[in-house]
From TrEMBL:
Predominant cellular place of this UniProt entry's protein: nucleus
Cross-referenced Pfam families: zf-CRD, zf-RING_2
RING-type domain location: 115-164
GO biological process, alphabetically ordered: protein ubiquitination; ubiquitin-dependent protein catabolic process
Domain of life: Eukaryota
Presence of keyword Transmembrane: no
InterPro entries according to UniProt: CHFR_Znf-CRD, E3_ubiquitin-ligase_CHFR, Znf_RING, Znf_RING/FYVE/PHD
Name under which the protein is recorded: RING-type domain-containing protein
Keywords for this protein: Cell cycle, Metal-binding, Nucleus, Transferase, Ubl conjugation pathway, Zinc, Zinc-finger
An MF annotation (GO) of this entry: ubiquitin-protein transferase activity
Keyword Transferase: yes
Amino acid sequence: PVPADSAYPEVAVAEGDAVVCSLVAPAAGGEELAWCEIRRGGDASSATIRNLSSDAIIVDGRVIQQELVDIKPGSKIVPGPREEGHLVYTFDITAAKDHDKNNVKILLDIENAKCSICLNLWHDVVTVAPCFHNFCNGCFSEWLRRSSSKSRDKSQSAACPQCRTPVQSVGRNHFLHNIEEAILQAFSSLQRSDDEIALLESYASVKSNLVLGKQKNQSRKRPLPPASDESNDEFPCPQCGTEFAGFRCSPRAAHIQCNGCGGLMPARPNTSIQKCLGCDGSFCGAYWYSQGVNSSHCNLICNQETFRMISQHHISRLPDTLHGGNPYEKDITERCIQKSGKTLQAVISEWIAKFDNKELDRSRLQLNNVEAITSRTYLCNHCYNKFVDFLLYWFRVSTPRN
């Protein structure tokens, strides 16, 4: 409410604080009293008022006792039974500030969102540690490749191209990637050409978190291979210092951390047995098995069964997470399988074949890279359970209702 006499303050009423406590008369030193209740109506331009005082009030010339009446912007309200001797307020509605959490605006200097190598806006931004500088994935990957080929001291860690701090690890930064996309939506002129993007993506080698060089004083995650010198503390993985399957890590080799056991394995982008295509996580079980490394060489590696091709997974019981963990639906599926006269593994194998033949709508498959997945794709156990859930959904859909 806005008083007609500008010598008196306006009365602000928030949605959660509807009772009006204010002066009712212009007397000097007058007492503020709770005299009405105002609440927003069904639309943005209306409200209701209820008299709470011991006397009548006037709304738009009408004397109001205790009843509830409608008001709108411009309505005149007198906090007493007559206009003489009382303040006169005019009702108005002000627009509320937008507090939509999904549209929070952040002030950002675009110069702080540029790669210091190419001087353009980030593309597929990666962050290096411990200095936390950010670069395009392709720019940093190509810089790292050239830096490694030119370095004479192979034991020295790679340096950040911006501050020259030794880089311990690098990974894709999904939060900054969202900011990168928001900037491009607001400033389309910063978008690179298709040829530039294709070139950058051809250079990009950071697919998951990479550990670079030798890490001093890191907590021991794996027992070390036997060696005669005193540099054992600097071997992060079994292939650092010992050759397996014809491969041995170079002194500055990048490493990937396993999502399963937390240990390290060399980053070898040309192999498909280090990364789960369903969740983009890294797992070491299949890789170490292919290299002939087992628990006798290192007691902290994942079991081969934790990361296999879809066609190599074996299943003997329904996953607990089937059908969103609904025990009723799970029981129905189990009885449907029993009535089919087939084992669970046989049913899954049959539907894997349908999946390979693209007979199923993949839009319900809650995995990454769904169009690239085949029976020869490596999946971790968690993603395999999601895959089984997807197949058994279609099994249920195709089962006659009787």
